[in-house]
Design brief:
Low-confidence stretches: none
Mean pLDDT: 89
Helix content: 25-40%
Shape: globular
Strand content: 25-35%
Number of helices: 9
Order of helices and strands: EHEEHEHEEHHEHEEEEEEEEEHEEHEHE
Strand order of the largest sheet: 1-5-4-6-7-8-9-10-14-13-12-11
Radius of gyration: 21 Å
Largest sheet: 12 strands, mixed
Structural class: alpha/beta
Distance between the termini: 59 Å
Amino acid sequence: MSFSIHFHNSDNRIKDQVVSFLKEWNSLDKGIEVQTSGSTGKPKTIKLKKEHMRISAGKTNAYFGLSAESKALLCLSLETIAGKMMLVRAICGNYSIVISPPSNRPLQNITEKIDFVALVPLQLKNSLDQDVKKLSSIDHILVGGGVLSSEVKKLISLNNLLVHHSFGMTETISHVAFQKIGINQSETYKAIPGVHFAQQDDQLCIHYPEIELTGLLTNDIVTLIDDQNFIWHGRKDFIVNSGGIKFQVEELEKKYAEIIDVPFFIFGEEDPVLGEKIVLCVESDKPIQLNKDKMKDFLPAYGTAKKVYYFPTFKYTVSGKINRIETLSTLNERTQSEIL
């Protein structure tokens, strides 16, 4: 086999996006314009060098051992860096790629043998629940774009799978580190070749000289093991200071994920006594059962939510992440709330 594209139930809009990207990729322009996700702030457009995208693609292909005989599945939006890089990897690796419309259940109608797939957490969760046999037949599973719940991690292990959880962003041209989930599971993220890390005020600093990144300071709070490995705790901009105690939102969300089985997130709402109080936002058109006494058993002191907002639907980014800012902007009198 060699580079080829196969469309699976794709509409004309997706085909037009592919044609448009290939024209841009094959043009004389040395760069590609991409947009950041906007999951924690206003999206912005940046220009990435094609040379750097080729470097990134080559590293991923080498990491997973992909060759001209491989076949990948692209089921992510082509408006994201993740979607674009799947195409670039196939071009640079000279292998075939199947393109299907982004959906919450991407493997449902796939019949051919797939060697490599990239998913967002919701797609992985649904594949584990409903298409685990097809998922198990894929040699290399990459997931990125969000936190994996403890339930998803358990399902990965129970099904004896190996999933590579990526860490990266648009500015780093997708991933710069992987964490293994399931087989040979690791608590740390390990740098890809050519990348090393530093730390500044508990925040991760990325050095990737091959793509001209030196000292990129992120908002990610980490424990740095060495210049190749780190443990991720959450984002600096997702900290709630309640009664003088600082809570890392993502760390709390990992705990809440043990008792909440619908999409949710946490934020800090202004409180006259505590400064900020911990508030749950839940995607549900009706209140869910929350056992406050049970929450106290496994949550840190003062880590229990004081209020819950129920949203019929959240706002999502094109990459499938909950857009917290946009979701919170829809708070109004129609949103149900509950005091805990």
